[in-house]
């Protein structure tokens, strides 16, 4: 027998998670996860699935029948929608301006999808007429944009883009990982055909599920395919057979993660989406006002600044990694580093879900002041 | 705004999970999941990842460096290994004798992998010389077998198969979903090149992660590929960059599920694999002895009967669904129905992980007696 040495009891240090995700999990969600499991075909569990879908539809502001959480993290949601909406050799147009726009292209390439990517400098967003022009120049079956670009902190406006896509015969695919629950997102009113999200950002849950929603128009496109999606685990119509009345076995959905998501979404519904959006906006505003007092400057212009993820320029001469280390070790606070071209240039501060609370902002601003201003 | 009606507090009925999975989660694992999260790059979390890998290596009985949990359920583990070991148009040989053997073929087809499937009646297993003959007749890059076929209750012996595969220039891929932790499995001693499992069977954890392990020989084959795996989320070398010293971001690994798996594996290590295997064997033996007293007959011959999942023939004239319903509603016990050709023919009783306890067997036998024998 190959042996093993004893491994110590789980005892992580307390952390206030104010990075790009995961954010801090709501205590009610933590408690829900210690609930003993139901089997995946137990009638009581099937009722919980239905309720979770109802709550997801409310949170996405949609009546889409095909609304369910994929059993993986947000990246699984991205890959699931790509392989369902697009067959190999079909064309995807990505309007990119950050890390996750690029990633849409990278993931699509794995499946033989033809990709046209247009780019803007990181931190900028696309105007509707730019999307219109791009679709005219690069006809595609699907056009994809990132609603809340976690790498830059920019908020891509989506109103009007669905109509533009449809005029060009394209479907509109949206990355809503860092927006779902944290800022206005209305799939039906905005004619969005497909969106994926994560649970560990604005929903107060741990990572592990990727809520997705697909419009009837997009579902028709899936139904018109001549070959099934190029990944079995992500085949949405197979998933819909389990989440729908058939209850046909596909894989063993995690009761624990469903408990968590359902509880996180119940909290969303109790607070109300509009109140939740307003809370995220108010705490972001309070944070940015505090930054100004510390002579710290957000990376993104106010007009397109996310309330859920704020990128802050690292002042000249400051060791950005040391600041993050001190926040973690002295204050128990996690914030994120810059990604890609913004590495070393910005910090990424997430104010999402249960982490978006005024007292957290006060603490972070106080800690930054102690580290940056009184650093002599 | 689209509205929503209030959804009630989570309050599932208590269930003793004695079906094909999930099995009941150990209380220590449930408690671990209510622990607040660490960020996925927190030095403390990275240490937990290392420890989880160490524990997984012990449980798989391997020194394979590439040993980690994929962020999905057991089926994600299956698809991950298929797309990493095999490029489109490469050949897989599946020695099937049940539902999950068939599924290996189905999933492989999605990726353009050429599949040869040989079949035996459900409930039977392959002798080493049969695998040898099959590989001679159908040369393949990978030969796959299901160690513990959850649909039939049959235990496929694996000793000697690695050597046979290698003699034919093939890699040996094993489905260990219902065996890992519950019965002898020794990746290194048995020359197994790749195995995937689930957490919700014999490890006492909820579903959500798929432990996989890949031998140096199989990893070399992955490294020799000219194109990357045909699914981005399942690309093991990208995952290894996060689980290894690079710590390169791929997706947001779920701290909660890692807490759960680490705790479930700590329980495995504390009890010791050999004691754990013996417990599963003893409880299965006790259950089968009790079945005999009720004139109930296991579907699989004793020589190849799994200790973790026992299929029981439904006696003539008995409404099998009603028995399951009464077990659930009157005793709070879940057992499973038959799958595929065994639908209506068998019940599937799982005695796995924390569910494999003598008192559970006593209760199930008592309940079956009350329902079946005193049913007049």
Description:
The structure is a homodimer of 376-residue chains. The first copy, chain A, starts with 15 loop residues before the first strand and ends with a helix. Chain A has two domains: 16-21 and 272-373, Aspartate Aminotransferase, domain 1, CATH 3.90.1150; 27-269, Type I PLP-dependent aspartate aminotransferase-like (Major domain) (Aspartate Aminotransferase, domain 2), CATH 3.40.640. Chain A has helices at 27-32, 43-60, 74-85, 99-110, 128-137, 161-167, 216-223, 236-243, 255-271, 273-293, 320-331, 358-373; strands at residues 16-17, 66-70, 91-96, 114-119, 142-146, 148-149, 154-155, 171-175, 194-196, 210-214, 309-313, 333-334, 336-337, 346-350. Chain A contains twelve helices and 14 strands. In chain A, the strands form four sheets. Chain A has a seven-stranded mixed β-sheet, sandwiched between helices. The model of chain A has no long low-confidence stretch (mean pLDDT 97). The first copy, chain A, is of the alpha/beta class. Chains A and B meet through α1, α2, α3, α4 and α9 of A and α1, α2, α3, α4 and α9 of B.
